[in-house]
Design brief:
The protein is α+β, with helices and mostly antiparallel strands. 61% of the residues lie in helices and 13% in strands. It contains eight helices and eight strands. The longest helix is centred in the N-terminal third of the chain and has 55 residues.
Length: 332
């Protein structure tokens, strides 16, 4: 095969183009830190890269969900803690008001304090987070507890006490659970409904403490409403009925225990959210490492290749210069 000067020159120029393109690619990698910037750089890496990015987007959304849930539950726990403190004070008032040696004026003073506490507890139940009511289910724009001024409330002994403020659950709230998705097929409840917080089913007991049963032998249950219990206790104090105040202490403890149980339940959910958050953050780190393996350039390796490529290009330029100086006279 005959090798002409023009053929040699074209071969050298093609090799220079290849070296120049390779050097340009390495320079881009060194400047951006990425070895894959377009699909043509590594077609086989495109699909796993897109899949990994999709997983990272999902993980970011799950992390956002969990973070919002933890913030919500932290605020909720603060309101429940305040409510528990109020109920502790109510119990102290109840024990003091049940003392037969207390006079009417003292009981009225306790009744006024209890009235303020009842309003404060209602404020806790109507609390909001980011403009949304915490204890209304999906009806977050509606206050879960409504207020009626100047109502008449019966004491445990049946004495009607007029001019009191009463509180009751609004009919606009929903009973639905609010759940956050923390992963594929994984959800955690992050709300408490006001009714499950203040209403408790307890067995009806005889005077000697025996649980009453129906014809089938099942215990007969009755509802204890914390808001109604507090109103009845205040009415007993205003009616100067120490035995009526005493009668409300058991129901008060039932209501306080319900608040404690629900707060504990939310604490367990918060622990699950924290565990989920730690897992998601670790997953995100793993995904970043996987993505980095596909698209990030090894700077040391890239610079070493650049040096080799530059040397090869410089050699090609030198050869090209020599070839371009050749003429027919060099062969005569």
């Amino acid at each position: 095969m005959r090798i002409t000067q023009s053929g040699t020159y074209r071969t050298i120029m093609n090799e220079m183009d290849r070296l120049t393109q390779g050097l340009n690619t390495l320079q881009v990698q060194a400047a951006t830190g990425k070895k894959v910037t377009t699909a043509s750089d590594d077609p086989t890496a495109v699909q796993p890269m897109l899949f990994t990015r999709s997983q990272m987007t999902e993980t970011d959304q799950y992390i956002s969900n969990v973070t919002d849930g933890l913030d919500r539950m932290d605020v909720m726990d603060g309101y429940l803690d305040t409510t528990q403190n109020y109920l502790t004070r109510v119990k102290e008032i109840g024990i003091a008001g049940a003392n037969a040696t207390l006079n009417k004026t003292d009981r009225l003073s306790y009744a006024d304090e209890l009235s303020q506490i009842r309003g404060a507890i209602t404020d806790q139940l109507n609390a909001q987070f980011n403009g949304r009511h915490l204890f209304s289910g999906y009806k977050e724009g509606t206050a879960p507890v409504g207020t009626t001024e100047g109502a008449s409330v019966d004491s445990p002994n049946g004495t009607a006490v007029a001019g009191m403020t009463t509180y009751a659950v609004s009919g606009e709230i929903s009973q639905d659970e609010i759940k956050l998705q923390t992963g594929p097929g994984q959800t955690i409840q992050v709300n408490l409904n006001v009714e499950e917080l203040i209403k408790t089913q307890v067995p009806v007991r005889d005077a000697d403490g025996t649980i009453q049963t129906d014809a089938d032998g099942d215990p007969i249950m009755e509802e204890v409403n914390l808001l109604d219990t507090l109103a009845s206790m205040e009415a007993a104090l205003r009616a100067n009925e120490p035995e009526g105040v005493s009668a409300m202490l058991d129901d008060l403890e039932v209501g306080a225990e319900q608040v404690r149980l629900k707060r504990s339940s939310m604490g367990n959910s918060a622990n699950r959210l924290e565990t989920a958050l730690n897992s998601l953050e670790q997953s995100k780190l793993d995904l970043k490492e996987t993505l980095s393996g596909y698209e990030d350039a090894d700077l040391v390796e890239t610079l070493a290749k650049m040096t080799q490529q530059e040397s090869a290009l410089q050699a090609a330029l030198t050869v090209t210069g020599r070839v371009s100086k050749l003429s027919i006279l060099d062969y005569i």
